[in-house]
Specification:
Distance between the termini: 8 Å
Largest sheet: 3 strands, antiparallel
Number of domains: 1
Oligomer: single chain
Radius of gyration: 17 Å
Shape: elongated
Length: about 80
C-alpha cells in the first residue's frame, strides 16, 4: 500500500517597540489567524501582519501598533 502524509505548520510572530501587553495577546492571536486564513485561501504561504490595538484602560498612550509576519511550512512524507 502506498501512502503519503502532509503536515502543515503555521508560524506567526508579533513585535512592537515597547513591551507586549499581555491583555493584547488574545486579540493578536485572533487577528493573525483571521488574516492568515484569508491569505491562505488566496494562495499565499507567507506574509506580513499589522495591528493597532487600543484598550483605553490599559494603554496610557492611546494604543499600540504591532507588526508581524507569518508563514506555512509543509513537511511531506511518502511511502
Amino acid at each position: 500500500m502506498k501512502q503519503f502524509e502532509r503536515t502543515k505548520t503555521i508560524t506567526y510572530r508579533w513585535w512592537t517597540d515597547g513591551d507586549i501587553n499581555p491583555a493584547h495577546i488574545e486579540a493578536l492571536e485572533e487577528s493573525a489567524e483571521d488574516r492568515i486564513f484569508e491569505m491562505i485561501t488566496r494562495g499565499f504561504t507567507s506574509g506580513e501582519l499589522r495591528n493597532y490595538i487600543r484598550m483605553p484602560a490599559d494603554d496610557s498612550e492611546g494604543g499600540v501598533e504591532y507588526s508581524g509576519w507569518w508563514k506555512v511550512s509543509i513537511e511531506a512524507k511518502e511511502d
